[in-house]
Amino acid sequence: MNRPYISVEVVRQVREAAQNRCGYCLSPQFLVMARLEIEHLIPASKGGSSEESNLWLACPICNGYKADKTEAIDPETRESVSLFNPRSQVWTEHFRWIEGGLRVEGLTAI
Ligand SMILES: [Zn+2]
What is the pTM of this model? Predict the structure, then answer.
């Protein structure tokens, strides 16, 4: 599938809104060896638009892991739960840093 076109201006707006850091692990651009990627919160393959409201920044590792998923199975309840949405949810309500900032720990099923 071809990558959808996203204008330079929209990329700039998303980078600014995301404070130039990954929405999932919060790694800032200056600590990530590769360029942070514009990711579709609802994947284009599932009908997600390339409008700014559906885009956020992700590091290649988080973006690759998320891929086209929007939900996953909670290993504790075996129920399907929505994945974290960095545009509409507050990171600190769902995650925290552990091991001196080396790992992210989930606080909720999200
Ligand atoms: Zn990340």
Answer: 0.90
